[in-house]
Amino acid sequence: MTTPEIVEALIRRALENATPSREIRQKMCGHWELSSPDAGSVFACVTGEWLQLETPPTGSTPPLVALEQNRVLAGLAKYAWTATADGLQLRAELPMNSDGDLALRVRDTLAGIVQGIAPPVMLEAGALTELCDATGWPFVVCHPHKMAVDLGLRDVFARARVEQSAETGTVRVSAELEVVPAPMTDVCGDALAVFLLRTAAVVRLVRPVIERRQAHCAIGFEAQYATRPGPRELAHALAALRVAAEMTSREVAVLARDATIARAYLAMNDMKSRVDSSGPTTTASVTLGKGEA
């Protein structure tokens, strides 16, 4: 085989490994069409030392929306306005002479291209309000795509947010329990993580999360829906957030800030290897969390 034939065989193998669910048809030397019934066609071609992936023009996507979507597309996919396509298209340029795994890069980038082919579906104006109203939970409208729901706890202020991302279309139901200065000490971070991850095993539906925001960390629970949830689904998520907040709010506030109690919590939970070198604590009688110790 000649060098060009070897390169072409390697590229085809990379495309096959990256796209087992797509049909690959060679159009001409160095040109392939990757097609699937649900995601349309993506064209691949060799340009010098680059493998270029591109779609037909996507005339239905407004330019400003395309620019916003570029921030969240997976892999190396991007919207670009090309003269050859006479408009917007999804494309990517992958170097073939790098030390990366070409099949892996193709797979990741095709995932981003599929994101662009099927852009987020936003709920119609007022739909999120109607959805929250149907749950029976008290709420206020902050924005057409953001609601605040009172979780109704007596001793702890806890409010959930129901919002839809304009970038991904995901509906996120979340409750922020605490915001603390960043970074936390290692022992506080470890204790908090162990406590919340253990809570995740006993609280249904929602998951604990931490979000880093410049000089602060926001700690809470959330559930995310890639498509619109039904009213009962949303009510389940809100109820789960209420349970999680009731179980963990006070403990989160303490563990995130008090290294002595955090160290005691780790020691009581057989996490001695994670207790820092400042030695044992005298606060070993502290019990944190329902069912913990």
Q: What do these coordinates show?
A:
- By secondary structure, the protein is α+β, with helices and mostly antiparallel strands.
- Helices cover 33% and strands 28% of the residues.
- Helix 5 runs antiparallel to helix 6 (231-255).
- Residues 273-293 have low confidence and may be disordered.
Describe the structure concisely for a colleague.
This protein is 33% helix and 28% strand. It is an alpha+beta fold and 293 residues long.
Summarize the helices and strands and which ones pair or pack:
Layout: H1 3-18, E1 23-28, E2 31-36, E3 40-47, E4 50-54, H2 63-69, E5 78-82, E6 87-95, H3 102-117, H4 127-135, E7 139-143, E8 146-150, E9 159-164, E10 171-181, H5 186-200, E11 207-213, E12 216-225, H6 231-255, H7 259-268
Helix pairs in contact: 1-3, 4-6, 5-6, 5-7
Helical stretch tally = 7
**Class based on secondary structure composition and strand pairing:** alpha+beta
Order of helices and strands: HEEEEHEEHHEEEEHEEHH
Distance between the termini: 67 Å
**What is the oligomer described by this structure?**
single chain
Q: Please report which band the strand proportion falls in: under 5%, 5-15%, 15-25%, 25-35%, 35-45% or over 45%.
A: 25-35%
